[in-house]
Amino acid sequence: QVQLQESGPGLVKPSQTLSLTCTVSGGSISSGGYYWSWIRQHPGKGLEWIGYIYYSGSTYYNPSLKSRVTISVDTSKNQFSLKLSSVTAADTAVYYCASYRADPTGFHFDYWGQGTLVTVSS
Amino acid sequence: QSALTQPRSVSGSPGQSVTISCTGTSSDVGGYNYVSWYQQHPGKAPKLMIYDVSKRPSGVPDRFSGSKSGNTASLTISGLQAEDEADYYCCSYAGSYSLVFGGGTKLTVL
């Protein structure tokens, strides 16, 4: 059973960079057919896809966040990371990491982390 | 890339059926059979309920079913149970390796 766990600061100051890491256990991040994803949910609001990365390093981002987002992968540690620059209060949200399966068996998010609340405040 | 349109809320009594719609465009819902649905209880991570429009993962009750017509996908829950009360989100592939979620629907079991 694959498990994902987010880690990182719960409080970030405005204009700084939000940094989170997702550790994958129970499976290899180098498995083909999976895109390692970040999704966020503003308080009381819906889900927003931030972007994802393939184990090879190819990245794909939500156009609305593309200028501020960097997703990277460390296959040796079975981890992938999110950096969101120049944050404001509008970036306060629960951030989830998840695996997006994209192969002949289906296209969907199958495993999710528990989510971590990041608050942007001075 | 705009969010897919879902009703903000739906409700039904135990045993009844409800349908939640998810409307997009020909660039997302209408263009691909890669629509998935997620159930989210308060304070919890989303859970996959339907993928590829109408496929059900193992462990998900067959009371949950999905379909698509044109640019609108639908999730139907039959034989409503109290534990079905949750928020539901659709998600579609939108081309060029991008994804888009719906705004979410709150299901109330009366």
Structural class of chain B: mainly beta
Structural class computed from helices and strand pairing of chain A: mainly beta
Mean pLDDT of chain B: 97
Spans of chain A of at least 5 consecutive residues whose pLDDT stays below 50 are none
Oligomer: heterodimer
Percentage of residues assigned to helices of chain B: under 10%
Q: How much of the polypeptide of chain B forms β-strand, as a percent range? A: 35-45%
Shape annotation of chain B:
globular
Question: What does the largest sheet of chain B look like?
Answer: 6 strands, mixed
| Topology, number of strands of chain A | 11
Largest interface, with counts of residues having CB < 8 Å to the other chain, equals: A-B, 23 and 25 residues
Helix % of chain A is under 10%
What is the typical, i.e. mean, pLDDT of chain A? Answer: 97
Q: What low-confidence regions of chain B span 5 or more consecutive residues with pLDDT below 50?
A: none
Number of helices, counting only DSSP H or I runs of 4 residues or more of chain B:
0
Global geometry of chain A:
globular
Structure description:
The complex is a heterodimer of chains A (122) and B (110). Chain A is mainly β and 122 residues long. Helices cover 0% and strands 56% of the residues of chain A. The mean pLDDT of chain A is 97. Chain B is mostly beta strands and 110 residues long. In chain B, strands 1, 3, 4, 7, 8 and 9 form a six-stranded mixed β-sheet that branches. In chain B, strands 2-6-5 form a three-stranded antiparallel β-sheet, with no helix packed on it. Chain B is built from no helices and nine strands.
Structure, briefly:
The complex is a heterodimer of chains A (122) and B (110). By secondary structure, chain A is mostly beta strands. Chain A is 0% helix and 56% strand.
